Amino acid sequence: MRKSCAASIIGAGLLAAALTSPPAVAITVGDGTLADWNVTVGDNNTSNFATVAPVGATLLGATISDNNDTSNSYNFAPAPGGPLGGGQDFDAEFMAAAVGIGASKGHLYVAIATGQRPDNGAATYQPGDLKITNIGGAHPGVYGIELGATSGAAITTTGGAGTTYKLGGSGNANGTDSTPAGQTIGAIFRNATFRTGTYGPLGNPGTQLDTNSAVHSDNNESQAGGAQTITGSGTFIGTVTSIYESGNTVTDQHQIIELDIDLATLLQSSFWGSTFLTLQWGPASGNDLIVTFALPPSCDCPSTIPPCQCCCLFGDCCAALPEPGAPAVMIFGFGIVGLAYMRRRRAA
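Above: the chain sequence. Below: its structure as tokens.
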């Protein structure tokens, strides 16, 4: 049977603990700041997204669109979601993803900074939901998280009614509806579907979750004038651990969104494995879009020391499995030893 590397891991862990101080506390979702990401969100171009280094977590990926708070340009850069797309009112500026360590291991943290503020008015405050594509793993596919909306107060708890926006041909909101029962703030959906049709100068797809046509009086139109197709939001699989969407109190030009998501719930598996995640967020109109790739963390297992095998259970080393047929061989061997012992006693 192959030997487990658990002993070497434990020894290395004890040595590391003796030589280093305890890890810092995990990211705090809902403190009204991204300081625990080592990120500054400030008005009039004072934001600093280049220093991202989450506290008590491992950074998996980060994307900076821009930090120009004074542009009203609605022109896109060559790539959708590029700098200045949609002007400040629609601006998706920054997104990062991290996985917790220590007590928060197995939790995915997401941070978003945007110019989509609740006090922009209904025509320009159209925040989308979070779209997560799982590449590989046990259950690959598209997942969605209902983020809801607010007229000014911060969102700090899950379970409230979400909001879906009706968008006219210009991409401006011409009404809102509450999402159906079950599609509440913080709800996670597997095989999620998002609103069809495109908005924005380059036809970016929005990131607004679909709702059920039976309970949603939709009058959306794409820029081409086509009606929207409503097919449902997918299969509900759970709720995020915690959520925060700032209201009108953080800055005069930004909104902050933070999430704490249990990875086992999201991936529908306890294995991180070889999968990686693509996270997308933008206004429902599609006037801007920001994408972040969350690559799995490197394994703690010293895979260079055979026969230890690294399968990345949220960064842990999985003990090596026995060789095929080894349990049967072991049982047979124990039986032979036992039989020999009994014969010796009889002979005595």
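The longest strand covers residues 92-100.
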